[in-house]
Design brief:
It is built from six helices and five strands; from the N terminus they run βαβαβαβαβαα. α1 links the parallel β1 and β2. The chain is α/β, with parallel strands linked by helices. The protein folds into two domains: about 130 residues, 3-Layer(aba) Sandwich (Ribose 5-phosphate Isomerase B, Chain: A); about 30 residues, no CATH class. Helices cover about 45% and strands about 15% of the residues. A five-stranded parallel beta sheet has the order 2-1-3-5-4, with helices on both faces. The model has no long low-confidence stretch (mean pLDDT about 95). The relative contact order is 0.15. The longest helix is centred in the first third of the chain and has 17 residues.
Length: about 170
């Protein structure tokens, strides 16, 4: 499987360890940066590039997932979720890694490098990669609603309130 990785300065060391682990497990790892430590770097472009690559690969039927890191993982998740067709989940436990795939068919996960040990992060990633989407109708329906909103700004028949235009 192809795994796209991105981080900020807080997750750089994690990123390197994770990349080594994933490559040793036989995955194709693509690093979207940064390449060197800079305490003032900005994570959005790195994470958006990784998420965009996941979406592009999946659109071409290439098996691909993404992992983004930061201090908390929150901003990195938000950045990844700006990319159309990306469903990025913040993962902080084995259970959230499983549910991200089983229920949400997440294609990117975000992990807080200052919140976990490298071994914990690697176990979350391995669990995420090894878990399949259940395909249950209720989960597929909800994912479809998110995709519909992403494309149209509405979810037909669900009472989505349109923002007031100023």
């Amino acid at each position: 499987m192809r795994i796209h990785i991105a981080t900020d300065h807080a997750g750089l060391e994690f990123s390197r360890l994770v990349q080594e682990h994933l490559a040793a497990a036989g995955h194709e790892v693509i690093d979207h940066g940064p390449q060197e430590y800079d305490a003032l770097d900005d994570y959005p472009a790195f994470c958006i590039n990784a998420a965009t690559a996941v979406a592009a690969d999946q659109a071409r039927d290439v098996q691909a997932l993404g992992v983004v890191f930061g201090g908390s993982g929150n901003g990195e998740q938000i950045a990844a979720n700006k990319v159309v067709s990306v469903r990025a989940a913040l993962v902080w436990s084995q259970a959230t890694a499983v549910l991200a795939r089983e229920h949400n068919n997440a294609n990117v996960i975000s992990i807080g490098a200052r919140q976990h040990t490298a071994q914990e992060a690697i176990s979350f990633i391995d669990t995420f990669i090894g878990t399949e989407f259940t395909g249950e109708e209720r989960h597929a329906r909800r994912i479809g609603q998110l995709a519909e909103y992403e494309k149209t700004g509405d979810i037909a028949g669900k009472g989505v309130v349109k923002p007031a235009v100023k």
